[in-house]
Amino acid sequence: xxxxxxxxxAITSMVLFAVVTIPADVRQAPSSHQPLSWAVSAVVYAVLVxxxxxxxxxxxxxxVGSAVLMADGMAYPLTLPAxxxxxxxxxxxxxxxxxxxxxxxxxxxLLTTSLITHPGITGFVILLWAALAVTTxxxxxSHRAFVAEVEDRARRAEQAKEDEASRRVADERLRIARExxxxxxxxxxxxxxxxxxxxxxxxxxxxxxxxxxxxxxxxASEEALEELRLTVGLLREPGAFTPAEPTxxxxxxxxxxxxxxxxxxxxxxxxxxxxxxxRPLPEAMELTAYRVIQESLxxxxxxxxxxxxxxxxxxxxxxxxxxxxxxxxFATQGSHMTSEGHGIMGMRERVAALGGRLSxxxxxxxxxxxxxxxxxxxxxxxxx
Length: 384
Known about the structure:
Elements: H1 2-28, H2 34-50, H3 55-71, H4 80-93, H5 96-117, H6 122-201, H7 207-236, H8 256-265, E1 269-275, H9 283-304, E2 308-316, E3 319-326, H10 330-337, H11 342-353, E4 357-362, E5 368-375
Parallel strand pairs: 1-2
Antiparallel strand pairs: 2-3, 3-5, 4-5
């Protein structure tokens, strides 16, 4: 805005200069020289119109024409507005170095010619107007550069905002995918196991055991449906990437006994061992530990071909660790576990989000082991 006002002021001043000064100078000039003045002026302004894309050429033509008319007796030739406008175009479109060079040469030529042909203040008035034209063009160029920089920064900020939104959407989708796999997948796996057992028990001699399997299937199905309902409710919750408030407590190690009982009902007896003084952990760490144990035992029940497992919890001053071990045949479960499927990948991502590390692989003495180590001093909530 300031550059536009400066440009408008400069143009107005030059028009007033041309309207007031140049006609008076034309009237005072000898009548015999007026045809030359009009001819030279016509040529200069014709070049100005025809060669607008070549400001330096216009400057050269206008300066030569002005020098000719000054030598012919005009103190303020009709071609001076063309000189000033050409200087403005150069300063607006060229770099600082070229603008300085052209401005110095033009000012020196006009001042020298004016002092020779019309000694006095005339040359300094022309010099002042030439300087104003250069300054106005420079100010316009700087204003345009400033506006372009502001627009570019706005575009970059908007792009950064869109990238951040996309990243947060991707993170949220990954978190929901892990929850679906760990929670719903666990219950569905138990349903699958119980359904397989039920198929073998449906005869007159095993009706009691069949009823127990049906009861387990019903309970696991209800749990799966509830987990799915909560997850879908989270996806449908309005708001910009803000998770909905859970309607039930986040699973943690205080619910570990219930989880182990569910596996016992599915035929997997799990022993729990604790080293160190048990104590509450941060919520994110409790959830991660619960999900790692849940996923590891689900894999054991589905792939290990054994009916026992051990869960070891270790509490140290600056860290928490857990291990899930079984004595199953690694060749049986290897096709699933060594491929780094969604289960292992999800556990590894959960642990890494808390600054910890997870390892999973066969034991030297046989079976399979999953170990997670979580440092308490760098624990942070997921997504922070």
